[in-house]
Specification:
The structure is a single chain. Helix 2 crosses helix 3. The chain has 2 domains: 183 residues, Rossmann fold; 115 residues, Rossmann fold, CATH 3.40.50. It has a 7-stranded mixed beta sheet, sandwiched between helices. Strands 7-8-6-9 form a 4-stranded parallel beta sheet, with helices on both faces. It is of the alpha/beta class and 323 residues long. The chain is built from 11 helices and 11 strands. The structure holds 6-O-phosphono-beta-D-fructofuranose. The site of 6-O-phosphono-beta-D-fructofuranose has 10 residues, from loops.
Length: 323
Amino acid sequence: MKKLALLTSGGDAPGMNAAIRAVARTALYNGLEIFGIRRGYQGMIDGDIFKMETTSVSNIIQRGGTILKTARSKEFLTLEGREKAYRQLKQHDIDGLVLIGGDGTFKGANVFFKEYSLPAVGIPGTIDNDIAGTDYTLGFDTAVNTAVEAIDKIRDTAEAHDRIFIVEVMGRDAGYIALNSGIACGAEDILVPEQASDINVILERIGNDKRRKKLVNIIVVAEGDDFGGADALRIKIMEHLPELDVRSTILGHIQRGGSPSYFDRVQASRMGYAAVNALVSGQTQVMVGLENQEIIYTSFDHAIKQHAPLDMKMLEMAKILAS
Ligand code: F6P
């Protein structure tokens, strides 16, 4: 293996730049040439490929977003698109890939490998933390910290007005951000896509809280919850309890941006380093992951399976602690 290419794909996540830095520097240390591909698989199809030097990744470890830019490519889902992508890689004599992204990224890599047998190693990068085969994905820690900071601020104003606040956090299919930010902020309720939500249970709890003069309620809801997010839930609550002062806030994409936490930077560095070492030692179609703080490798086939279930005992605990 002489020439590696690197891309970021899917939703960006804080820590991706730290991983790019680690991949580029480890590749160069091993005497390999390293190429950056801009805008994920779409850039591969379009031939947006450039040679990276050690200075290409200077001063990026602390930056959010991704210097390689990212995209969700519809064209790569087609046979023709993947064929174009392969031709572009061959023109540059690329003989190995490092892919940073979520399960969509690894699904794409898996199909591509079956068609063209190009060695590839993945690094899990998504704020959702919803990939099987790793306890943790890059960006999750920073995103939860961003959500926690915002929810703490919301609690200040909620206290001042005795209000109920519903805060929507990201997570289309996964409740990890909601669960962890909710626990960290002492949320009175946490609603996640992994569990059906019952409006009667929510109303009963709010009613009980009101009777014992607990007037402030913070409800953290993941965007993929079956209520359809914070606004839908606010309307439902106000229909039943019109006398209450209820507000909703959608945190949105601020959770994706910002300087990565120390934890994201360190894990990104470890994963980037491990990804190149894996390719150099002949591993392919594996994703680097973290299990009990140790680096592990798991096949793409496993990584793209349903993510590990949320720990429902933690939801139970959160309710008891906030009661
Ligand atoms: O996958 C990360 C994520 O931020 C999800 O939490 C969210 O549902 C989705 O991406 C939003 O995607 P987009 O930026 O394309 O709207």
